[in-house]
Amino acid sequence: MSISSILATMLRLRALSSQQPVQLGLQNDGRPDFKNYQFVLALAFAIEEINQNPDFLSNWTLGFDVYDDQYRAWSMLKNPFIWLFGKYEIPNYTCMRDSRSIAVLTGPQGLTSDKIGTLLGLYKFPQITFGPFSHVLSDYHKFPALYQMAPKDTSIATAMVSLLLHFSWNWVGLLNLQDENDSWILAELKEEMAKNRVCVAYEQLISIQSISHVLEAMAVYNEINKSSANVFIIHGDNGKLIELIVCIEQLLIKGRVCIMNSQWDFTMKRKYFMLGSLHVPLIFLHHHEDVSGFTEFVKTVNPSKYPEDIFLARIWFLSFNCSDIESDCVTWDNCVHEASLDCLPGHVLDMTMSGHSYDIYNAVYAVAQALHEMLLHQTEVQIMGNRKRTPLSPTQLLHFLKNIQFHNSVGQQVILDEKRKLEPEYDILNIWNFPEGLELEVKVGKFSPYALHGNQLSLSEDMVEWAIGTTETPHSVCSETCGPGFRKSPQEEKATCCFDCTPCPQNAIANGTDMDQCVKCADHQYANTQRNKCLMRTASFLAFGDPLGMALACMALCFSMLTAAVLGIFAKHQDTAIVKANNRTLSYILLISLIFCFLCSLLFIGRPNTVTCRLQHITFGIIFTVAVSTVLAKTVTVVLAFKATSPGRRIRWLLVSGAPNFIIPICTLIQVTLCGFWLGTSPPFVDTDTYSEHGHIIILCNKGSLTAFYSVLGYLGSLALASFTVAFLARNLPDTFNEAKFLTFSMLLFCSVWLTFLPVYHSAKGKVMVVVEVFSILASGAGLLGCIFAPKCYNVLLMSNRNSLRDFRDKKPTRRN
What we know:
This protein has 817 residues and is α/β, with parallel strands linked by helices. The chain is built from 23 helices and 25 strands.
């Protein structure tokens, strides 16, 4: 069947092919550029496939006319008038019937569909476009009879950003047209990039009016050249951007990765794109299954089969070395024998069905399906109403086209209604140009919006051919990745992808890359030196098992036993002169309090708990108050004893009445009151210190109320100072059994220990503080024991001749002048 015979049908489906690039033009090397001729082949293939199906359209057959549109007002509108009013004469064909068409297929340029669609919409003439989806053409009020076969690119932004995230590219340039149709995609792309922390390194919006100017190309080149971004995205209609690409093809920086949207037919523009300069194009194309039988159909197409196809004849003459015969008859004897379209290079005519050709194939089936349903409807009306068949009307067909929904021969669903269309899937293509001139399209990945999140993009990274001589994936970031242990610190007045790497602060970690904030370790954990992991802290306290804790505990027990031994010596020699002369009762009280002073230091050793924390300083304060007040009572007793030696002195009754003995309970009661107030308001409690020692959590006793704590210490210090003052004043009183000197030395040592304790205690950290406090308790207690009772024990045990009143009376008293 020839093309002319196909035209002799009841239905004519006409298609337009764009002027740019020139459909039947010549390339610079003399080879023809017939890329758009595949549109005609896809149209003819679908028509023949439908006409050969006996179960489809019954006795009806389809035909088509093909017109090459020109960008001139009259030629652009002339063909629609022919379709509408049927005034076109078909060569070698005469039909007595109405020769008007019933539907028109336009594309791929949106401008053509726009101009023609305005006229066709007035007459409700069905128009189907196979070009890229246009928001302008989706206006139903302006184009009520127009349907777009291409799906809306609702997922293109997500698909491109997914590719960027796969390769960790977060510093990307944008090159787009200032076109109303593409502005929404640009907005979605920028929003998706911002959502996934991908920054725009530069953005070049190219005006359509100035696109042919060299200055525009130079501005684009300068922006690409000075930017550190190695990846940029080109989005826009290929026909509008082609002039710009021609200008900058030799200027594009080598090694840059160019990501293009599905509107680009890259193989069609190879003569404009210098692959040696662009190097790495990654192209998103609408995914479609291969239609079986199309390649075999193209192989069978030749001028002998379709002698009136002037497009095919021109391809044959220019591609297969045919000679023009000076005759009115057309002959192909001089052409290469067994010539076929599959012998042509892929960039001249691709044997596989392109995306636009696939849309044409589906458009033809959509019209046929609507026509089939319309014919069935007319048959039902005829049977029910016994009416005659009415002529086919484009307006009637438009009504049926609106609800068309079917599965094509490859199983994909076809829907004309824009609101019910499914989101498209994308194939990701890479151009292999090594060895140079190969120019092979290779599918390296796929994006499916229907897959689970995280699995939408599938990519064979090892199949991508990067820049010639390079095997590594290109790098496109504003700042290098911050590794574990560092956080991102934004740079002023720069994009969020530009940052400095700052080490995490103490006890905080960053266990991932490019973390905005460091994570603070829990109180029971600490950060390692690399600041990328939290480790468990080791509990630290002055334990009995520690060498230092064991030594202090042994010292406390030894001093306690030594004090108990002194108490035993005094009890055994209680009737001796020295024991009686130094107030035996007060000595017993002092020795017993010192025993408890040494033992109370054991409360500071071991793991702190609530009981020990409350008993530590309370017990220490009360027992040491008893000890110091006892020393004060002994000192006062000595003073009163010497002041009351003269008969008739009024002060004698104080000594006789035992008034100094009341000093102990009164002073102790005051301290007990202070401690009770401490416990009642803010008692000590178990606390932890996570800062003093790296890698350790110090378990300690918190003082609670510092005011109460220093009040207890201050009161104890006041008693000690009073005892020291009284003892110092009585140090030179003449008497063999005068212990004022020893009391003075003991209180001097006591005060020195605790005055040294305060600065050392506050400068120490961790369990060293506890060691200092325990050592001060033991040292002060040992000072009292040694200075007061060591001389007495020496006299009692070794110098018995001094431990009698008879010896004392035989001695002559010596007085100082």
